[in-house]
Design goal:
single chain, alpha/beta, Rossmann fold, 17 helices, 19% strand, disordered N terminus, binds adenosine-5'-diphosphate, binds magnesium ion
Length: 470
């Protein structure tokens, strides 16, 4: 069964016309949300009327605010009970959603949001729930766990959100979602968000939604925004072609898509052997390894992130200079999602695509969907530019100790710029995780920074610091 797409709204529109409180309107202005994104413009009016929605739009299109504003409108802050539940596929995404909901909720009085994911002791989460949470965001497994133990009460629930529903289905969460949905009050609003529309979604909607409205915002990007260049390669030269592209275009950050995990591993090995700073992201990494890879890519100490489509889904990475399609995907919709990672927010993006003769059928399907022919170039055009190998500007130091040790970003910045004697400009992004802290520093001072931090103190305590390999 396929949905009947409603007419996508393309005209930019402000939030002003929506039935939102003046405090919320002011908060949106403060956040710099002046216009609704197309999915917000299409989803918010029916969502604020209490309708169930199936909304489909590409990653980075502002889906979180689309459901967050609806669930906040349904909420009574003076009622101390969980009134909204958001199911997400991974802890990372749950954290991102929690952050965005908190930003949007700060307009209202004291709204409490709790994140419920695995890998964290249940005890802490139970304490947060006992203190009275209005909104719970989490992964299906852990939410079920709390429901079974009776530590999460959803009798007062009025909004259920399934975020990244396609990915949750990919990960085999259908039964868990069904179990949770069955325990929610019948009188509620259900909002389902997804980047694609696999079969399982229709099954979910039939079972758990009431006359849902389907909204689909065109996956197509403006061609001016993304420059797509195609290169025909033999399979034997494919991996080497990636380094030719990197040395020619020298993008500051690149997401390279492969169709398989094995290809990801091979490409990273080839790139690292040639002196590039490249890391792989694929399903088998544990949460800590995944966090480290993402931190290093986001803080500009890794030039190339090599990923499968499943592993990359839902990542919100700003300022991606280029996307490389190492393998052509057989699914043209996936191609649109891949290249949509670059050229966001009005900046021009670069999509470099490799295709062998046996992939030309897939290329044809992509051309059909995009409604235009591919622009072909030859590998012979690629010549190394710039001086020396492409290196990232920063390097990442890992400090043993994080939120658990009450380390804050300011403490780390203070240690580097105070005692250790570095300039503020030499310090980049600081991520404080539960047990580890990651700080990006100018690549040139990395070794020195490790030595000086190891010799000094943070929050009056000596710390263990090491340079993360890339
Ligand atoms: P998705 O869930 O569709 O992948 P997100 O909800 O993560 O997308 O939003 C992507 C980014 O866009 C976030 O950084 C968010 O803060 C920002 N954003 C969302 N809505 C707006 C808006 N109306 N104006 C400006 N920025 C927005
Ligand atoms: Mg999202």
């Amino acid at each position: 069964m396929t949905p009947t797409p409603s007419q996508p709204v393309v005209e930019p529109a402000g939030f002003g016309a929506l039935a939102l409180s003046p405090a919320m309107q002011a908060n949106l202005v403060q956040l710099g949300y002046t216009e609704m994104t197309p999915i917000q413009a299409a989803a918010l009016p029916p969502a604020l009327l209490g309708k169930d929605l199936i909304a489909q739009a590409k990653t980075g299109s502002g889906k979180t605010a689309a459901f967050a504003l609806a669930l906040l409108a349904n909420l009574n802050p003076r009622r101390f009970a969980v009134q909204a539940l958001v199911l997400c596929p991974t802890r990372e995404l749950a954290d991102q959603v929690t952050t965005e909901i908190r930003r949007l909720a700060r307009a209202e009085e004291n709204i409490k949001v709790v994140t419920l994911c695995g890998g964290v002791p249940l005890r802490n989460q139970m304490a947060s729930l006992e203190n009275g949470a209005h909104i719970a965001v989490g992964t299906p497994g852990r939410i079920m766990d709390h429901l079974e133990r009776g530590t999460l009460d959803i009798e007062a629930l009025n909004t259920l959100v399934l975020d990244e529903a396609d990915r949750m289905l990919d990960m085999g969460f259908f039964d868990d979602i069904a179990t949770v949905a069955r325990q929610c009050p019948k009188q509620r609003q259900t909002l389902l968000f997804s980047a694609t529309y696999p079969e399982g979604i229709a099954k979910l909607s039939v079972q758990f939604m009431r006359e849902p409205i389907t909204i689909r915002v065109e996956a197509q990007h403006g061609s001016a925004q993304i420059q797509q260049r195609w290169y025909e390669v033999k399979n034997s030269e494919r991996l080497h072609a990636v380094s030719l592209l990197l040395n020619h275009f020298r993008p500051a950050s690149t997401l390279a898509f492969c169709n398989t995990k094995a290809q990801c591993r091979d490409l990273v090995a080839v790139l690292q052997a040639q002196g590039f700073s490249a890391l792989a992201l694929y399903g088998e990494l544990d949460q800590r390894e995944r966090d480290q890879v993402l931190v290093q890519f986001a803080n500009r100490s890794c030039s190339v992130l090599v990923a499968t489509d499943v592993a990359a889904r839902g990542l919100d990475i700003a300022q991606l200079a280029a996307v490389i399609n190492v393998d052509t995907t057989p699914d043209p919709e996936v191609h649109i999602h891949r290249i949509g990672r670059t050229g966001r927010a009005g900046e021009e993006g670069l999509a470099l695509c490799l295709a062998s003769l046996d992939e030309m059928g897939s290329v044809g399907k992509i051309e059909l969907l995009q409604g235009r022919e591919s622009q072909w170039h030859t590998l012979a055009e690629l010549t190394p530019t710039g001086s020396g190998p492409l290196r990232p500007p920063m390097a990442t130091l890992q400090i043993v100790g994080g939120r658990k040790e009450k380390i804050r970003a300011g403490d780390v910045l203070g240690a580097l710029t105070g005692e250790a004697g570095f300039a503020k400009e030499q310090v980049g992004k600081i991520n404080v995780n539960e047990f580890s802290t990651y700080v990006a520093v100018d690549r040139a001072i990395a070794q020195q920074a490790v030595q000086r931090l190891n010799a000094g103190r943070i929050k009056g305590k000596s710390v263990k610091v090491r340079l993360l390999e890339d």
